[in-house]
Amino acid sequence: MDDHLNEMYEESKRLFEEGRYMEAEPLLRDILRMKPEYADVLNKLGFISFMKGDYKNAAEYFKKALEINPFYTEASLNLAITYNEMGEFERAKNVILMAAQAAKPSTAPLDRFAARKIANEHFRIGNLYMEFGMYDEAIEEYRKALKLAPDFPDVHTKMGMALRSIGRYEDAIVHFQTAKQINPRYGPAWIQLGLTYYMKGLTGLAIQEWEAALKSNPKLKEAENYLRFIRKEEEN
């Protein structure tokens, strides 16, 4: 999920959890237009429709959520409750039976969408740990995120920053290099790799990284500032 969509989702979730359903609904609809396969959004829209007494649309939302994720217990229960309200008692019973069968342990791997969604959550938690200087905990969360989504350059970069913070420079360099390979235009990886070289006393390599970063993205002010700083140091 991109940053803008993630912000929209977090805001809609906050409004929904606070019971401000009418405010959450337009945001959820916008998200659904961009991500029609988002089962949680469908479930929330179904719940809002149910609260408005629109049982027919509520049932449709819950069914779509279950088509995407048959193991979504909350959506199953919501659909069963909706069918009960509609007087569709046999349907409600069948939904509960199907939910019980789906709840049996499965060894099926996560699909790509689900894996990346969970990876984003681990990344978000890791960033919170980083903010409070809890680097070991952050590293653990980033490791979980990368296990699910190894091609996220931002997670590799943050992992490198966390490793560097506890003195594991070589391991940090590996993650910055990986981030660069995944997306050569991802500026923060170049910046942080240069910073790591500089902290190790490898000023020449640091300069190479920042010059390359600027060549790739001339608007990268951080690289420009670091280079200016080093050149002033060399003059003194």
What does this protein look like?
There is one protein chain. This protein is mainly α and 236 residues long. The chain has 13 helices and no strands.
Features:
single chain; 236 residues; mainly alpha; Serine Threonine Protein Phosphatase 5, Tetratricopeptide repeat; 2 domains
What is the element layout, followed by pairings?
Elements: H1 3-17, H2 21-34, H3 39-51, H4 55-68, H5 73-85, H6 89-102, H7 112-131, H8 135-148, H9 153-165, H10 169-182, H11 187-199, H12 203-216, H13 221-235
Helix pairs in contact: 1-2, 2-3, 3-4, 3-5, 4-5, 5-6, 7-8, 8-9, 9-10, 9-11, 10-11, 11-12, 12-13
Helix content: over 70%
The CATH topology of the largest domain is given as: Serine Threonine Protein Phosphatase 5, Tetratricopeptide repeat
- List how many beta strands DSSP finds: 0
Could you say how many structural domains there are in total? 2
**Uncertain stretches of 5 or more adjacent residues:** none
CATH homology superfamily of the largest domain = Tetratricopeptide repeat domain
Annotated CATH architecture of the largest domain: Alpha Horseshoe
The coarse silhouette is: elongated
Profile the largest sheet: none
Specify the structural class: mainly alpha
Order of helical and strand elements: HHHHHHHHHHHHH
Q: What does the average pLDDT come to? A: 86
Question: Quick one: CATH class of the largest domain?
Answer: Mainly Alpha
Oligomer: single chain
In short:
With 236 residues, the protein is mainly α.
